[in-house]
Amino acid sequence: MPPVFAHGRLRLYLLKLLDEAPRHGYEVIRLLEERFQGLYAPSAGTVYPRLAKLEAEGLVTHATEGGRKVYSITDAGRAELADRGGELADLELEIRDSVTELAAEIRDDVRGAAGDLRREMRAAASASATQVEDESWKAAKEDLRKARQEWKEQARRAKDESRRAREEAQQARRQAKEAQERAREEVQRIAGQLQEQFAKSGGVLGSLAGAWLGGGAPAAGSADASAAAAAAAADGGRASEWAADLAATGDPARDLDRLLDRFRDEVRDAARDRGVTAAQVAEARGHLEAACGRLGTTFGARP
């Protein structure tokens, strides 16, 4: 049969089956055989070692029921399954293609066998016309009838499985796309909160904010914030060079997300390396207030 489960693919499909419901090993084998309409079934020597490996990695667990191990997926297993959602959609397409190829191979085999049988019958008829209606001839006709019936049944099952696999693949793609959209919305939400939460990051936040925004006015009444803003303005030349390695993607919203991510990472790393004091947090709050005001003006402007 054509290869289906390349490296790591059977592991992924086992997680999918266990995510649907807890199952014992032979039930997993039976479900795989059903997905291939009886055209392929992995052996116990293939499935059980992989289940044991998944359990050793903490992706599945098992309980003994009636003397049999019943495997269930863990939260870690669901996380890996979610991370590989796109790969799972590709695997569903590969299974559908494999079923189609297997059906084609069976069809070719049946046609070849039928052709051989017809040639043998013609040869037998030529050798002895008087024996055309004997039991051998009747048996040959019955074999041919059964072969045709088997081919029709295999073709029907392959067509049904191909349709189901296509529908499952489409559903998997939709789910993967929805997951990506949710992830993007979450990143954008977090980016919106950075302006309120960066005050917790550390004492060097003011200089980084000034460099990123090209300087800005501090909060009223804060002498430390005024001094930091002046230093940031003096360092304004770095604004055009900061994050210059982040090339534009053509999507302004995505470019802004990437700049915010870079800003957050630099501030967090600096705070972790140098430590944070209460005075530095107060100073950082002034820088962030000024930066928030400048960005609000920038994004609120109309051409």
Automatic annotation (TrEMBL):
Pfam families: PadR (PF03551). Residues 148-184, 217-241 are annotated as: Disordered. Residues 14-82 form the Transcription regulator PadR N-terminal domain. This is PadR family transcriptional regulator. It comes from Streptomyces venezuelae. Gene3D superfamilies: Winged helix-like DNA-binding domain superfamily/Winged helix DNA-binding domain. It comes from the Bacteria. Residues 219-241 have a biased composition (Low complexity).
